[in-house]
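PROTEIN DATA CARD
Card holder: HAD superfamily hydrolase
Chain length: 275
Origin: Mesoplasma corruscae
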Amino acid sequence: MIKMIIVDIDGTILHKNKIHSRTIEAVKYAKSLNIPFVIATGRNITTIKPIAEKLGVFNEGHYFIGQNGGQVFKYLKNGEFCIEYTDVLDNEVAKIIFKKAKANKIKVFAYSEYEKHAYCTNKMAAFTTFMKFKSKRQKLLSIRQIDQNSAISKCVCFGNSKNMKNFRSSIDELNLSIFDFSYVSNAHANIEINPPGINKAKGIKYICDDMKIDPKDVIYFGDGDNDIAALEFVGHGVAMINAKTKVKSHAKYITDLPVQEGGVGEYLFKNIFKK
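Structure generated from the sequence above:
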């Protein structure tokens, strides 16, 4: 019996900034059955909010998993949010990442634990402008300022394939959690870096422990590299049909329809709600 539904955002329920009506209907139906609906994403608190609003799960005190499992929080009924935990990089490790990135001609955009700030390698780069817009960060800082400001919770790194391969090799010894990045098309040359041991399964375990739900009674939908741990952790891991082969190989089930055709909603109605 499914006791909790968890979904990724980009490529899973969201396509070209739209959520299919069938998926929204499924969320409403799950709520009518009192089945908790949780979002698990690489996004941050600010950029999760509009998705939560579209799905009708904002300001209801539900759990959300952000930054690839590096953060768990709730939007409260008064419009505020309550952070359960946030994992951050050690400042010295963050400095090493930036140093290695510069040496390998890799651009870095790093999320500060403080929602309004970000660190970057080049304020004038098109990548930085793109990420500042996507993340809704208001102020850009230099890594040299980190000891006087908030720690880094996640880095997004951009560069060509050869440089990225060299960069990844240079930081292997740091044992960081590294995932392909969802927003860009050339994913193998763009990565997200989280503190060691971070993945969405960690966030799911935290929520399951608190709500006393067995992970085998949880269904999870995802399409990306950062969804693999979650797909394996829950009892009902479902990969999107539009996911890469690597991701599908870690799932127990696959949707019949892609994200743009409401694959999540169709799967829930057909296989879980039996409607």
